[in-house]
Amino acid sequence: MLRIHFSDADLARTRIAAAPDPVWEIAASLHRLQSRRGRWAYAEWYRTARRQLREKGLERVVRNAVLPLYPRAAYFPDFLTPDDALGDLDTGMEAIVATSPQRVLEEVAVFDRTVGAPRWAGQLGRLEARKELTGVLRRYYDVVVAPYEQQVQARVEGERTLRLRGLMDGGVEGMLSGLGPMLRWRPPVLEVSYPRQAADRDMHLAGRGLTLVPSHFNWGEPVAFADPRLPPVLRYSMLHEPSRPGPPYDADRADRSLTALLGRSRAAALRAASTGATTSEMARAAGVSAPSASRHATALRDAGLLTTVRHGPAVLHTLTPTGAALLRAATGRSG
After folding, report:
1. What is the pLDDT of residues 65-89, one digit of tens each?
2. Is the pLDDT at 298 greater than 70, yes or no?
3. Of 17, 29, 15, 20, whose CA–CA distance to 218 is shortest?
4. What is the mean pLDDT of residues 104-130?
5. Which residues, other chains included, contact 168 with Cβ-Cβ below 8 Å and sequence gap of 6+?
6. Residue burial 159-182, b: 16+ Cβ < 10 Å; e: rest
7. What is the assigned CATH class of domain 251-331?
8. Where are the domains of the chain?
């Protein structure tokens, strides 16, 4: 178990990332390729990723050079998932390349002691080796993660809306209380479930606050940096409910579905979702029954305009980037 200790200053400085961490999504997706845990939730992605890696000629290099660096284990080097990469793949790749050779070798040594590093991992102390690695990671991202960018961003925005409700109802402590079964808020400590093979440890934020990063491809236990000197970041899974991520967003399919959205009630439902709405709130806004609102939400979601997450006994509907763009165009707003 990881115990994260908060002071009042830490509570004031705690935030939820506004965008996915693309470098972490690379690492988490590599873990999905190595584990059957949660496979049902990523079945479509898993089949497509395996096929695309094979067709693009990446299967061997990923198997032999990338997966050994990102084992689904108690530890892999922190420098492979830099803390300043939120929303920006280029920044993350540049940070990996710019890591000092001393830090690389120190973390590879820890990796070797705790898990067992591949024999060639020490070569990453060389600048050219890190450049070569990031080149492969970029190609991997383009093939198996980038097609899901809109879906991942929509899920992050839905998660932020959900946490905002907790914040409004109970402050930062209310937000922390609703993070899911792997995270338990016992003031002033956030208890984080860790893999059984990982040793218990304490993280004292010491006034730095905590950045919470929702992750699409993470499954199960949240993940923090092993080195306590690094900025406090906690990456956690959004898949607490049994909902299946669909295939990559298909604009043509969404266009065909837009014909189902004509009409006053669905327009009102779409507007209600712009600030986050439960099915009951959507029903009141549209002036329809709850079952009718649920059907409208399903049509909007099938068209790629809504995403839905669970909020206690209810569900919360929020706009996808496409839904927000459609609403802006319909209302003439530029923001």
Report:
1. 999 999 988 899 999 999 877 778 9
2. yes
3. 29
4. 95
5. 174
6. bbbbbebbbeeeebbebbbbbeeb
7. mainly alpha
8. 2-17+150-237, 22-147, 251-331
